[in-house]
Amino acid sequence: MNDPVSERTRTRTPRRPWSLQARLMATVIGIVALILVGSAVAIGAGVGDALSKSLNANLEATTRQLQLFEPGPLQNVRRADEALSQGPQTDGYLLLVDSPFDGVSGAVIVADDDLEVAPLTSTQIHALRAEAATRGFSTVRVPGLGSYRVTPFTAGTVTGIAGLPLSELESTLAEILTTILLVTIGGLLLLAVAVALVIRRSLAPLRAVADTATRVAALPLAEGDVTIAERVPAEEADDRTEIGRVGAALNTLLDHVGSSLTARQRNEERMRAFVADASHELRTPLASIRGYSELSLRGIRQSREATGESRALAEAAAQNTEQALERIQAQSLRMTTLVEDLLLLARLDEGKELVYGAVDLTRLAVESVADARAAGPDHEWALEVDDAPVVVAGDAARLHQVTANLLANARVHTPAGTHVTTTVTASGGSAVLRVHDDGPGIDPAFAGGLFERFARADASRARQTGGTGLGLSIAKAIVDAHHGTITVQSVPGSTTFEVRLPARPADPPA
């Protein structure tokens, strides 16, 4: 059996939360309302107490002016109505006289066309004697007359009770409280309007942030070339305010996310190009290996068939097989070099493959230029170094690979007779290696992707140069792993590759 209370709890619609503006307005107006109500209560109590004291003083002064006794030696006590007729007449003034000779009498001054004295009824007299006969100033409800402020008095052997109506005090207090209430309500309405305008204006940057975040959240960011053009408006991203700093921070975050998405797309494109280039690079030697393998098998079969027929045919088949095996070996070596270069790049990207030590960059340049002079005798090679060796902390073998790649690049991509100058200097705490040539220069359209993997200016992938397009990318990866930089500046007739590495000062002489 289902519990109806639980069933109602499960089916209850969740209450919609208040907005930040509504909560702020409710909080501010509620606190101010409590303050105003408390102030009104305090003011009302203070004014009521002041009016009550004033009424008490007026009652005492009026009572002292009563003429309770007739003139003459006997001083007979007057009845209440007679005393009120003789004394000061104040509208609503009430008097009760208890004389040991004449008994109890009571009267009140009433306002008709003129002030008149009216006797009190027995019920009214009883109410006065029961409530105020033995107390000081007190408030009594007199039947037919309303609320009175009364006080007992004594004059010789006569006792009595005098009182003034509270109607005037109550009306005055009611007017004051009504005025306070109207002013409070008006003030709260004005406050609500002002607070709404101020809060709405103050929260405008936050709404702009929320709207921008909502629009960005609706963008398809998972794949493809994504551009985040949404930003918080500049006027709502003033970093001099708290909410403005949120908007500025969101804009900065969107800039970083946009840069990351652009980098992701660029990496994906590079990866696709990398896979295509690697596939192309590997397909050619694999095709060569397959062809020469088939040729070798055919030569072996021909050699077996020609053994009994002709020695010359057998020797020719053997020679063809040997050449095919040599080509297979050459293509295998080329594939091995390509795979090793790719493995080196992967390890450098992971921060591996470096063995640090003290490297004399000057000596390394001397050796590299000597190797390049032997490999390219049709070029003119020059070396400019300082007398003092330039020492860096790094991997000697890998830095030698950088220098060799730069010199090989100058040898391969420049015509015979080109001057190639290698310079090693120390500058501002850095070791600088420059390779300069006066060749035709680099095509500006290709310069931006010069250090990319499989980068070649020849879009047809021709093999005239014999390269795979990994030399400069390996050089850049090695320099980056040494926390250095490699740059190129090229114009027709002048191309300079510059490598900057953190220098380590040479050990002082013993």
Explain this structure to me?
By secondary structure, the chain is an alpha+beta fold. Helix content is 53%, strand content 18%. It contains 12 helices and 13 strands. It has helices at residues 4-11, 20-64, 80-86, 122-132, 167-202, 204-217, 242-305, 311-349, 361-375, 396-412, 444-447, 471-481; strands at 94-99, 103-111, 115-119, 138-142, 146-155, 158-165, 357-360, 380-385, 391-394, 419-427, 430-437, 485-491, 494-502. The strands form 3 sheets. Strands 3-2-1-6-5-4 form a 6-stranded antiparallel beta sheet, with helices on both faces. A hairpin with a 2-residue loop joins strand 12 and strand 13. The radius of gyration is 55 Å and the shape is rod-shaped. The two termini are 98 Å apart. The relative contact order is 0.05. The model is unreliable at 458-466 (pLDDT under 50).
Which term fits the overall shape? rod-shaped
If helices are DSSP runs of H or I spanning 4 or more residues, what is the number of helices? 12
Mean pLDDT: 77
- β-strand number: 13
Structural class: alpha+beta
Low-confidence stretches: 458-466
Rounded to an integer, what's the Rg over CA atoms? Answer: 55 Å
Strand order of the largest sheet: 3-2-1-6-5-4
Secondary structure: helix percent: 40-55%
Taken as a percent bin, the fraction of beta residues is 15-25%
Q: What does the main sheet amount to?
A: 6 strands, antiparallel
Looking at how many chains there are and whether they match, the oligomeric state comes to single chain
Series of H and E elements: HHHEEEHEEEHHHHEHEEHEEHHEE
Distance between the termini: 98 Å
